[in-house]
Amino acid sequence: MKKKTVLFVLILLFFFCFLIYPISFILVQSFYHNGEFTLEIIKIALTNYVLRKSIINTLLLGLIVVLTTTIIGVPLAFIFDRFTFRGKSILRILFLLPMIASPFVGSIGIKQILSRFGSLNILLIKMGLIETPISFIGSGFLGIVILQTLHLYPIMFLNISASLNNFDISVEEASYNLGANHFQTFFKIIFPLILPGYFAASSIIFIWSITDLGTPLVFEFNNLISVKIFHNLKDINTNPVGYALVFIILILTVFLFIFTKRYLEKTPYTTGKTAIQVKENILSGKKLIFLYLFLYFILFLSLIPHLTLILYSFSKKWFFSIFPQEYTTEYYKVVFTHRLTKAGILNSLFYSSLSTTIDIFLGFSIGYILSRWKIKGKGFLDILSMVPLVIPGIVLAFGYVASFSNTILDPKNNPIFLIILSYSLRRLPYLIRTTYSSFLQLDRSLEEASYSLGGDNKTTFRRIIFPLVSPGLFAGSILAFAFSLMEVSSSLILAVRERFYPISKVIYTLAGRVTDGPNTATSLGVIGMIVTGLCLFISTKIISKKIGEFFRIG
Q1: Phi, psi of 233 (to 5 degrees)
Q2: Into how many domains does the chain fold?
Q3: Residue 262 lies in a domain
Q4: Which helix or strand (DSSP H or E) is residue 317 part of?
Q5: How confident is the model at residue 553 (pLDDT cuts 50, 70, 90)?
Q6: Which end of the chain is more exposed for a tag (fewer CB within 10 A), N or C?
Q7: Considering the domain boundaries, does residue 295 fall inside one?
Q8: CA–CA separation, 287 and 58 (whole Å)
Q9: What's the rounded mean pLDDT across residues 112-121?
């Protein structure tokens, strides 16, 4: 019993030191200045024209991306739920591919397409449709919307698909029998019943959109809260406005999370009986042709950032032309020989491996405690372990810089420990979810049978518990490793000195350099994209649970 108590206390202490304390420090600094409580810091953030404009732009960005992902993701979910057609299974997988490359990486390639002298303008000029180049991405805001939409709509697609799997088609049929048309049935019957999945997806997308740091930096669009927070790190000790901006982000994300978890859970969205699955319609003729055209068009748009990223990485000369004029593989050689890129790859592998190891231990331990132990405070640990889902990477990283500056853990001197912890905490819920669900599916009678046959705790763990739980644990660890490898916000903020740069910080640094910098950055991005894709593929093969379960709230 003492060992159990010690482990429980140590886990709580870990969360307190590296999650609760940094966030609390931000909250305190947002309202205290020179030892006195004040609302002036928040007031400055809300009344200053530049900062207020950044807040409005951030909210507008989140809302627009939710809308655009809804326009794409919801129809896709209904198409795959209601119709059967050749290649359906393969297309369903292909529509998840946009998630393997972050908008931060894809933005380097998309700028080559949408810039004033990019491929699209050259194509339109050669076709005689325009005479002078058009600024498609303008100040960069439109480019951010496009990249985020193409990256995040699979989350909407996955969540709506999961909701439709539990949908009772007889309710919809009853609506039609009572004289309702398709429009009335959708908004009065179907949409209210899939609201939990829709709000869960919308919350994740909104939070991800407003806290994205890498994409706005590449597009050089500074009027967003995330970018203002990043730039305020330079004078964090003299200008407290950065704390206020982080507080605003934190309030938005926490509110959305609580709304999704509490309000929707209290609202009945069930029909009161076992769902009757929809009978899929078989399409043929012109309808099938139009369906394929629509699906392949959306898929093509989704993969443009990936395709341009690959093209850019192989291009030796790409200027005033639709496609590269010369191709080369030399930049892939540079990736593994250049001092900065080679160090970045090794650093990311080191950081991600250690953070995943921590996640495996904590994920297994917390999953076991929540499913098997009877101990006071277990409910608090359950809530605490899910808090990283609410805390964006930019908030956690800012909290580390603010709270651990001028200490032995100061990231300006050596950020390794804090980078590993930030990676670990951000991905820990993946491991806890997969492990906890595996324990729930593990019948206690198997453990009891082992004990009754003379097996001790070690034997039961080694021969019964771990082999049955390990598939979910392993799948979650692969996901944690993949997403940590290409983590953006924490990497950009915590890695200050070049010798500590992970892959994302190296890509950002190279993308801003002239000559061959962007080419090397895209080559490194392609390698990261391939690794992430392989990890996602392996993870989904290991467990029967769909990948969408990792992108749901609750």
Answers
A1: -65, -25
A2: 1
A3: no
A4: strand 315-317
A5: very low
A6: N
A7: no
A8: 40
A9: 82
The verdict on residue 195 lying in a domain is no
Domain around 455: 1-36+331-554
Query: Structure tokens of 236?
Result: 């964090």
Sign of CA dihedral 28, 34, 37, 39: negative
Give 252-255's long-range contacts (Cβ < 8 A, gap of 24+): 252/207, 252/210, 253/207, 253/211, 253/390, 253/391, 253/392, 253/395, 254/390
Chain segment 478-531, per-residue pLDDT in tens: 878 888 888 888 999 999 899 999 999 999 998 877 777 888 999 999 998 888
Question: How many angstroms separate the CA atoms of 302 and 304, rounded?
Answer: 6
Buried-state track 425-442, b at ≥16 Cβ within 10 A, e below 16: bbbbbbbbbbbbbbbeeb
Q: Which of 346, 488, 345 minimizes the C-alpha distance to 422?
A: 488
pLDDT digits (tens, 9 = 90+) for 344-396: 999 999 999 999 999 999 988 898 888 878 888 888 888 888 888 788 889 99
Q: Give the integer Cα–Cα distance in Å for 343 and 423.
A: 18
Give the integer Cα–Cα distance in Å for 11 and 378.
Answer: 11
For residue 354, give Cα distances in angstroms to 475, 486, 491: 16, 15, 15
**SS3 annotation, 520-537:** HHHHHHHHHHHHHHHHHH
Write b or e for each residue in 368-377: b if 16 or more Cβ atoms lie within 10 A of its Cβ, otherwise e.
bbbbeeeeee
Angle at CA 239, nearest 5°, toward 235 and 241? 115
The arithmetic mean of pLDDT across residues 58-73, rounded, is 94
CA distances from 88 to 82, 96, 521 (A): 11, 13, 35
- DSSP code per residue over 456-482: -HHHHIIIIIHHHHHHHHHHHHHHHHH
Per DSSP, helices labelled H in 83-168 are 88-94, 103-114, 119-126, 141-165
Q: What is the largest CA-CA distance in the chain?
A: 84
Neighbours of 469 (CB within 10 A): 23
Residue 261, judged by CB atoms within 10 A of its CB (0-12, 13-18, 19+), counts as middle
Confidence at residue 228, expressed as pLDDT on a 0 to 100 scale: 92
14: amino acid identity, one letter: F
- Answer whether residue 470 is part of any domain: yes
CATH code of the domain containing 486: 1.10.3720.10
